[in-house]
Write a structure and sequence with these properties.
Strand content: 25-35%
Distance between the termini: 32 Å
Shape: globular
Helix content: 10-25%
Structural class: alpha+beta
Order of helices and strands: EEHEHEEEEHEEEHEEEHEE
Largest sheet: 6 strands, mixed
Length: 251
């Protein structure tokens, strides 16, 4: 299929067929409500000297009906959050990330602070919910018979947060729940403290249970967060679950 010229006068981009190769090929990923408008992804031909702000303006003109949402989206370039002035380079992967559930206050975040489960769940609940499911991951005092002193979590922060936002949006679409919150703590955690809190609000309990289970299982498999266990007789990095084959490069 030939390249499609943009309907926008003076544009710096044009749509390409995904099979076409070009030195200035740009892959654009969409999530949440943006996916409904543009599909999961597009390949664009990008002309030199363009930046993130140019790209957002391009799509904003294509879909003005999204209105105030354009003021709230974040942009990641190669899994790193980017400013409007960041220049785009050939073969960049750009993700347009709307707030989960169109900007609802439910948190999707990484934090070094103690997780306040009551505050998060109270803010998420609404009168239309018939079910509310919470997964509260807690630091236990032992692992396979070894006494645990404390845990230490670290992350590839920008990528981990983008992944969590993406998975939250996918859970809402996949299971038809109303909203979700996902908060993961980093740094040193003592026995009894919460490492991750997932809350799901839904009209029906089945969807709430399924979404909650899917979120924790998927986060553990593919979000770049690592755990180091400190015992009375030493410390080890925990062997995580293997990444899905689709995201492991073949060498």
């Amino acid at each position: 299929m030939p390249a499609q010229l943009s309907p926008i006068a003076g544009t710096h981009f044009r749509v390409l067929d995904a099979r076409m190769l070009n030195d200035m090929q740009l892959r654009v990923l969409f999530f949440g409500v943006l996916r409904d408008h543009f599909g999961p992804e597009e390949v664009l031909e990008q002309f030199p000297g363009t930046n993130v702000g140019d790209l957002v303006r391009y799509y904003r003109v294509l879909s003005p009906e999204l209105g105030p949402l354009w003021e709230k989206i974040a942009v990641a370039v190669n899994q790193q959050y980017a400013t409007a002035s960041q220049e785009l380079s050939k073969h960049d992967e750009v993700a347009l990330l709307p707030p989960v559930s169109g900007g609802a206050p439910s948190p999707i975040e990484l934090t070094h602070d103690v997780i306040d489960a009551k505050k998060i769940t109270d803010a998420l609940k609404a009168d239309e919910d018939g079910a509310f499911t919470v997964f509260d991951g807690i630091v236990r005092n032992n692992t396979r018979g070894r006494q645990t002193l404390f845990l230490e979590y670290s992350a590839y922060d920008a990528m981990a947060l983008a992944q969590m936002q993406q998975l939250a949006a996918e859970a809402i679409a996949k299971f038809g729940v109303r909203d979700v919150a996902v908060v993961h703590r980093l740094g040193r955690l003592e026995v009894g403290e919460t490492s991750i809190l997932i809350a799901v609000a839904s009209a029906h309990r089945g969807a709430a249970f399924e979404a909650c289970r899917w979120l924790i299982d998927t986060i553990k498999k593919q979000v770049p967060i690592w755990k180091k266990e400190h015992f009375v007789d030493g410390a080890v990095w925990v062997d995580g679950e293997p990444f899905p084959e689709a995201i492991v490069p073949t060498v």
